[in-house]
Write a structure and sequence with these properties.
The complex is a heterodimer. Chain A is an alpha/beta fold. Chain A is 52% helix and 14% strand. In chain A, helix 1 links the parallel strand 1 (5-10) and strand 2 (30-36). The chains are: A alpha/beta, B mainly alpha.
């Protein structure tokens, strides 16, 4: 969450896995989440559930073609995907990827590549975690105990829009549960104790 | 590091002091002298393989017991899990609640904020106790029934149906919301609440919440990595009609 980025590595060679973990852990804001072998049962399903920010994958570790794998992931989540292969590898191994790490890269090259790919400087500065007016409106209703459908009706929005707003609220505040959001709303006087009591 | 039975208990705890509450749950307390894990287990009449498996599961996130699983009974594991439940409900969470209460008492000016934390924590506790009750009263008895049936070789049709209709795999889904609440609690304290005058107590509360979260995650992992595979194996045998 926030400015931290989680990384999953998919590679069968244990030494390479462990090496990448060490290199990634030295980068600011990068959190190594998990290493996979590529042969796991329903790997893409697992990854979609864990929703990492960055996936570094050796296409040869996968049991399906890289393009199929990437399509499956991109349909559900949108991680940054970096290929991992030999610089002399065949074109069909390299071509599915916009970004590539090579086994022959030294430590500094790997770190520079990952940094350049993952955190454009402007991106870090710009993200102000302030709620928009609309988000505040929705947060109030959530705190008052309304469901997504009820909020949609009341504010003349589609349920889908309400859900998108709620996702953004959760992300901005770092709070996931309704009780947590309610508490935030009370603390910041977005709703009053009286309103809360009246609803029940 | 993998922990094995020939190691000295004291060395293991020096290496990882967070194991102390786990060891206590087995009735073992500090002051080990130079005794090995094996010697201590013998003295306390504990199942050695089981004890070592639990220590490793807590010590190393990636540890996954395989062949050891079959070497001890599910009832042993359930005894352990229930003791752990009592630790969470009777010891750990009341400690945190008492610290929150103390903050409210000491800081009249910001009372309204700390009242909110108290309310939030109580809601969490309610949900958490419910979850634990569910395990203690529904799931664990079911597992014991499975084991008893397999031991005696008498497997009736109703048990066979139960195993087919409601396999154990469906059971861990509800861990999630309980975990999300703890996550929110940390975030609210760190990001949004004013620190009370007694900032040391506040830090203690935060630290205890982190510890609770970690201990719960490990507890859940033991259920997922040891209990569930064991129960799945038993269910498979029963469905197989052996």
């Amino acid at each position: 969450m926030g400015q931290f980025r989680t990384v999953v590595v998919i590679e069968q060679n244990y030494l390479i896995q462990a090496g990448l973990e060490a290199i990634i852990s030295e980068l600011p804001g990068m959190v190594f989440q998990k290493a996979c072998l590529g042969t796991e049962n329903n790997l893409s399903g697992l990854l979609i559930k864990q929703n990492p920010d960055v996936i570094i994958v050796n296409p040869e570790a996968l049991t399906e073609p890289a393009t199929v794998f990437l399509n499956t992931l991109n349909r559900q989540i949108s991680p940054i995907i970096i290929g991992l292969t030999d610089s002399k590898a065949a074109e069909h191994l390299k071509s599915p990827f916009t970004h590539l790490l090579f086994f022959s890269d030294n430590k500094l090259e790997i770190q520079k590549k990952i940094r350049d790919i993952c955190e454009p400087v402007s991106d870090r500065e710009d993200k102000k975690q302030v709620l928009s007016k609309r988000e505040v409106d929705i947060l109030k209703e959530v705190a008052l105990g309304l469901t997504n459908q009820e909020i949609a009706n009341k504010l003349f929005l589609s349920v889908h829009t309400v859900m998108t707003h709620r996702k953004n609220i959760n992300k901005k505040l770092g709070i996931k549960t309704v009780s947590g959001l309610t508490m935030y709303a009370l603390m910041n006087q977005l709703v009053s104790m009286e309103e809360m009591e009246n609803k029940q | 590091m993998l922990i094995d039975q020939k190691m000295k208990m004291a060395d293991v705890v020096l290496h990882d002091p967070t194991l102390v509450p786990i060891i206590n749950r087995f009735g073992i307390h500090l002051g080990f002298g130079d005794r090995t894990i094996e010697e201590i287990c013998e003295e306390h009449q504990l199942h050695l393989q089981f004890f070592v498996t639990i220590l490793n599961a807590f010590h190393d996130k990636l540890y996954f017991p395989t062949e050891q699983l079959q070497s001890f009974k599910a009832s042993l594991l359930i005894d352990y899990l229930q003791t752990a439940h009592r630790y969470f409900l009777d010891q750990k969470t009341p400690e945190i609640a008492a610290m929150i209460e103390k903050t409210i008492q000491e800081d009249e000016g910001n009372k309204k904020y700390y009242d909110l934390i108290k309310k939030f924590f109580n809601e969490y506790l309610e949900e958490f106790s419910h979850h634990i009750e569910q395990e203690d009263q529904v799931i664990f008895p079911h597992v014991l029934e499975l084991e008893k049936a397999l031991d005696s070789g008498i497997i009736n049709q109703s048990l066979r149906n139960k195993v087919t209709l409601h396999p154990i795999a469906a059971y861990e889904a509800e861990h999630e919301d309980v975990e999300a609440k703890i996550f929110d609690l940390k975030n609210i304290i760190i990001r949004y609440l004013p620190t009370p005058k007694n900032d040391h107590l506040w830090y203690q509360i935060l630290r205890e919440i982190f510890t609770l979260e970690k201990e719960l995650a490990e507890h859940a992992r033991i259920e997922d990595m040891i209990l569930i595979p064991k129960v799945e194996a038993m269910e498979k045998t029963i469905r197989g009609g052996k």
